[in-house]
Specification:
Layout (H helix, E strand, L loop, with lengths): L10 E8 L7 E2 L6 E4 L6 H4 L9 E8 L8 H15 L4 E8 L2 E2 L39 H4 L5 H19 L4 H18 L10 H13 L3 H12 L2 H11 L25 H18 L4 H4 L16 H7 L5 H18 L13 H7 L1
Antiparallel strand pairs: 1-4, 1-5, 2-3, 3-4, 5-6
Helix pairs in contact: 2-4, 4-5, 4-12, 5-8, 5-9, 5-12, 6-7, 8-9
Length: 361
Amino acid sequence: MISSLKPEKGIIKILISSPSGFGSEYVDENTGLIVTQAWNQNNEISKRRTGGPAFRTAYIIAFRSLPDMQDYTPVGELICSCLSVLFGKRFDCHGIVEGVGEFYVPNLSTYYQLLFPDYPQNSIYPRNSLRIPLDLSEIHRIDGLFNRKNDRFFLTFTAAAKFYWNALKSFEDDPEIAYLHLITVGEILSNYYESRRDNLLDENTIKYFAEIENKLENGKKIVKYLKGKLFQAKKGFTKTICNLINNEFFLTTDGIQDVPWLRFKPDDFEKRIGAAYDLRSRYVHSGSQFGKIISNPVSDLIMGIINTGDDKLDKIINISPSYFGLERVIRYCLLQFAQNNGVDIDSRLTGKSYLSTQIKQ
């Protein structure tokens, strides 16, 4: 039993927790990875009101020790970040409780943190967007990640997932930093596709570039210059996000207030994603504050017309996604990115991308 108090040589146990509740357990016979309930004799967790701001559920990650590895905390953080992406929920890693026959004291500083239970990342209900049951057995959907070698995809996904995970954890204390973490995820994914950036071009653009190359004396040089202009950071970020979103995404929302004018729509989605990048740039370059504005309400878009007294900021922020909208986008993109690279997560991720649909229109 993984919950046994008897220390087991060669086994590492890490304590994690979540403000959401998960049933069952996950066991991978191939890798030896187990994620299961962490029970205690006082049954303290069950006494804390389900769904309240103090509600927490604790779990143990157990696996065999690895040769020449001294610090296993990054393994726990890696798994927490992957679980956050899969379920769209906050997880906290408290560190090792048992390692190779020795007991350790976990860091419980975040365990007793009060969190707003109605935020989608904290709630006890599954996310509406790509709804996955809150059951640890569902971790089988990302088996392909845990069995993966350190190839380019794996390194890109895990780096991006960690920023997503940090966004969920930092939002309630610093929403602007959380927003920037989400933008960073998009930039990491964009950099992955940079070597194949021609895939971001629509059919007409590809055709026109071919005509320029064939008909003009310096055609190849001109096309190279134009592509450089097209694939600046914002353009690459926006096109990458749009390529990773399909029509399934627009069918649901995680917003508490599910009204049409607070949901993403396909006809202006690309413009709003570009505005999110502009908002990040505005903050980085001028320090413009926007945390309170993008934090409320819990919906894809910001409610009402914002007037901060800064005309340039107002123009950007009035078409930007809220934190919750951008978070929903980024989670979907990470899952789609994994699906595209051989991790069989969900058949709903196999539909045509938003961008290709828009081109045909």
